């Protein structure tokens, strides 16, 4: 299904409608029957925390959502997104194709959050289903004079970018290898107005990107390295913010094959960082944010075959640093390191990398947030955290003490590519830090990037995590 959203001046007579309110008294302005109002009053007297009421009206639906004002503004917004996902199920069940959204509590951000939840929950990846369902479009009408048509269009374009990111993560490697990913980047650049260039293997060899080339040695498909750029004339920042996304389109673990075997089932998602960067650049360019942003995406699969790297190999990175390979399943950091080293040519004011990098991050905080660390200022970290709270893509900041550096010492090279079992997410970040001089943030999205069971407006599969986080961070801190 698809969801279209527009601004409306008023609620049509006899239409389905969803109201947001803070108190029963505000419902006097709503198009509800006296019986419905009495029902809500009685229920609220019995349970003051009751916050969702849905009424069937013979093919139409009326719903009332109460804000939890004891929660923070951002917590309330997330509750409404999740309620929006629940209400979408009801609207689909009743085959309702139009609904009006109205806020009686005088807080327009609540209405936009509700709409966002409905829209995000409507995502489907069904291109390989042979049984095609009838096309179904839900029309959302936002009734609020404090919300502009521009804000509604902005939301629509950001959700569209999230869907692009989800599509990329959900696509199998049989139809999305590194070269195909590069083609999609070029297509997105044409469609949304940013610049893009895709380096082939020969150019990557000329750049001496030893990490990317080493990981690619076991594959029959060549690697790519993509550069995405959005530089509007009115950009607020002279030096760019560089976004780096891990693009391992499938990860077998290489010679250190992943175990147990079932852990391979979701490894098409190991390019979730690349998908986030593509989605973020798409959203930024589509909404013409006045920010100078560059995206870097090293891409390859990590296979067993050919001349695949093995433990004990020593490789030379783009920076000239030598690395002793201790585990071929620690490949993401190798390709990211080359990209981080390459980013120095832009003299960036900030670098942020996103990667489904470690199982340690998943074990630490699960799918409920992203593990973060790095060398940027506390002000930058706080701004990124606020953006994460705003869209409920929350960050858990891990320590970055020098003590962890010792785990990467090698007797035969400048460093090893992996530390011990302890603090694996941190030592992975420590590895990356050796290849970057600019202020830098590392986001390990291994937990929230791909879900094996539905979570409210995030369905099974790719979630598009990172797109909304980066968009709102750059919009609020630079634009």
Describe the fold and architecture.
The structure is a single chain. The longest helix is centred in the N-terminal third of the chain and has 22 residues, at 149-170. With 479 residues, the chain is an alpha/beta fold. Helix 4 (149-170) packs antiparallel against helix 8 (272-286), helix 5 (178-192) packs parallel to helix 8 and helix 11 crosses helix 13. It has 13 helices and 20 strands. 35% of the residues lie in helices and 21% in strands. The protein has 2 domains: 2-147, Leucine Aminopeptidase, subunit E, domain 1 (3-Layer(aba) Sandwich), CATH 3.40.220; 157-477, Aminopeptidase (3-Layer(aba) Sandwich). Belongs to the peptidase M17 family. InterPro entries: Leucine_aapep/pepB, Macro_dom-like, Peptidase_M17_C, Peptidase_M17_leu_NH2_pept.
- The assigned structural class equals alpha/beta
Number of strands: 20
Helix fraction bin: 25-40%
At the fold tier of CATH, the topology name of the largest domain is Aminopeptidase
Largest sheet: 9 strands, mixed
- Write the CATH architecture name of the largest domain: 3-Layer(aba) Sandwich
| Total helical segments | 13
Mean pLDDT: 96
Q: How far apart are the termini?
A: 33 Å
Number of domains: 2
Q: What Rg, in angstroms, do the CA atoms define? A: 24 Å
Shape: elongated
Indicate the CATH class of the largest domain.
Answer: Alpha Beta
Tell me the strand percentage band: 15-25%
Name the CATH superfamily classification of the largest domain: Zn peptidases
